[in-house]
What does this fold into?
Amino acid sequence: MPTYFHFWYQNPRRPDDDIIFNGELESLRCDFVKLDGQRCKRRCVIGLPCCHSHLPIKYHIEIKKSSIDVAGKGLFAKDKSHGDFGIVFKKGDKICPYYGELIDRETLDDRYGNDKLGLTAPYAVAVHRNQFEDGALRRGVGSLINHKPRGQANCELSNPNKNNRISIRALKNIRNGDELFLSYGRSYQMNLPYVHYDTNNRKYY
It folds into this structure.
């Protein structure tokens, strides 16, 4: 069954600004190649580019319920070879790709409204001035990391690579079982009462 992302803005003081963006999440075949040389046949929607079984093997991370009550799912360090509390990622290590969809400013504004509205695209990170990596419809594994203020975060976004792609990097040593946290930045507006977004199996078009 397809999975859809929905974003809507309903501010009673500015009714003419209502924005509704809906879209079907991308489904891709897991890119993990097994020891026999065969590529995994599973398809995945959340946590691209690997299925849940192979994320721990390829990237040493897993998706499960966040330690933050209202945050839903989160991303955790997981590597059985390091013991229960062993260090999985050392400071500066690359953890995983963000793996979102590359879009330009015009597309970002079409989806979420322009800067004058003061809205925040919940899964988008800036690559360059006119380019963004958005996890709304391509829900890459890096977009599942929840927010904590800079002093409490244990991860950060890397600089773009030659393909204009962002990765997640360890800010400090991260141990087995630790949840990963990013600082979304000062401009990220969280829990605005008139901004809503959801991911589910219902089509709202």
User: Anything to note?
Assistant: The chain has one domain: 4-200.
